[in-house]
Specification:
single chain, alpha/beta
Length: 231
């Protein structure tokens, strides 16, 4: 024996989603193709109305275009007020098996909107802001299949991670098996966050400017490097 212990490598199964609000809109078709070829698992679509969050992001037409350009699943994050008033605009332009997240604070009866998503054959999800406590959405956790934890305040790319969100993730991980949902990370997703939280049970990570977009490497090289992270 040499006395040197080889680093132990664990193969982790986790999903990687591309935050398309960070893509190059002048070359959207080639962006979708390059991400597909690079091995992305799904396309994350941020819809903002300038009211629920102080910004406008992707549009219904952007979502429709990407849905028609790829066979990969779409992960649609609605940052809009009163999503139940407009939910049919999204369900009729998506496919069965796509995911729609709503923010529970955005309307009086979010469970009604979640039921519309379920009836359309899509995966219901809720997105939890940094300032939203787990206790206030506990009953909805029994309805949804996915929970998107915002580690930054929603509305803009490139924000700083809010460290107290880690305690919320720990709490959600402790109840996800009983409630029957999977947990996903959105916001300021760096390699150290994946290596810390994927082994703990976070199922997927939304990749934006921190890891994926605006880098010198190709998407395929970047995604391969993320999947080869050591745990």
């Amino acid at each position: 024996m040499t006395g040197v212990t080889a680093e132990k490598r664990y193969e982790m199964q986790f999903e990687l989603m591309a935050s398309m609000m960070c893509a190059d809109y002048g070359h959207l078709e080639s962006e979708v193709r390059a991400l597909e070829e690079g091995g992305i698992d799904s396309f994350h679509i941020d819809i903002m109305d300038g009211r629920y969050v102080p910004n406008f992001a992707m549009s219904l037409n952007d979502m429709r275009y990407i849905a028609g350009a790829t066979g990969k699943p779409l992960d649609v994050h609605l940052m809009i007020e009163r999503p139940n008033d407009r939910i049919n605009l999204f369900t009729k332009n998506l496919r069965q098996g796509d995911t729609i997240y709503i923010h529970p604070e955005a309307e009086y009866h979010p469970s009604t909107t979640l039921q519309v998503i379920i009836d359309a054959g899509m995966i219901p999800g809720i997105a939890i802001n940094p300032g939203t406590s787990v206790e206030t959405i506990m009953e909805m956790l029994r309805i949804v299949k996915k929970v998107l934890v915002m580690s930054v305040n929603p509305g803009n790319a490139g924000q700083m991670y809010l460290p107290y969100v880690g305690k919320k993730i720990t709490k959600l991980l402790s109840i996800k098996e009983d409630m029957g949902f999977e947990l996903y990370w959105d916001g300021a997703c760096s390699a150290d966050k994946i290596t810390e939280y994927a082994p703990k049970g976070v199922k997927g990570f939304v990749l934006g400017t921190t890891l994926l977009f605006g880098k010198s490497r190709s998407y395929g090289e970047t995604l391969q490097a993320i999947r080869e992270l050591r745990f």
